[in-house]
């Protein structure tokens, strides 16, 4: 009987997902195990074959950097949102098939609600071009935001996403990373940082015009380890409302677990556990 859950990506040393799900699973008193599988790119295909094998114990798994897009050729199906995004963070085995989903946008959206961030008719700037950026941007198009601009290095990749955003009736444009210092920050209400910069052991910093931030801005960094990245620390110094990525991690994981099992984890327990680990 399939009882194995987990996460694939590389690196995974920073990941809190195993212990958070383990804590929630113990409270539910159900027979699931959540593991982490750090895969080199040349191991991805064999892992997917193993997951699909009828003798496998794998129910499903989360997908993180750098496989949210690379995993798609190995899947049998995508749900509507994942197909629209061309990015997957959740995979479920069912009836002999592997199906991909994306809960990133929902995790970020619930973070906005939890923190009383007003998003309707607001202008949003997203830093990055990866799977998380796609999931967040396209989910927000369905929630009455005014505009979503994308700041990244990969022009071709982001212009495609920007076109899809505009097809929903919401304004969007590509901004080259080299223009970061010249940004008109006053044009935006919410700024969302989706790159790995700031994560433990990641080299590099974001040359952001922090001095242009005010208390009218909400700044979100989806990195959660450390709890306060350099990006958030500097944004906070200029008065911005700052939110780390921990709540997004918990809520996207909650929705993944529900997809796999139909059960609901205790998100407050997961948040308390995460904060105790990272603050301790």
Task: Describe the fold and architecture.
The protein is built from nine helices and twelve strands. It is α/β, with parallel strands linked by helices and 280 residues long. The strands form two sheets. A six-stranded mixed sheet has the order 2-1-3-5-6-4. Strands 9-8-7-10-11-12 form a six-stranded parallel sheet, with helices on both faces. It is globular, with a radius of gyration of 18 Å.
Strand content: 15-25%
Question: Strand-and-helix sequence, N→C?
Answer: EHEHEEHEEHEHEHEEEHEHH
Query: What is the distance, rounded to the nearest whole angstrom, between the alpha carbons of the first and last residues?
Result: 37 Å
Q: How many domains would you count in the coordinates?
A: 2
The tally of beta strands, per DSSP, is 12
The low-confidence parts are none
* CATH fold topology of the largest domain: Rossmann fold
CATH class of the largest domain: Alpha Beta
Structural class: alpha/beta
Please tell me the CATH architecture of the largest domain by its name. Answer: 3-Layer(aba) Sandwich
Spatially, the strands of the biggest sheet line up as 2-1-3-5-6-4
Percentage of helical residues?
25-40%
How many individual helices? 9
The major sheet is characterized as:
6 strands, mixed
Radius of gyration: 18 Å
CATH superfamily of the largest domain, called what? NAD(P)-binding Rossmann-like Domain
Q: State the shape.
A: globular
Mean pLDDT: 95
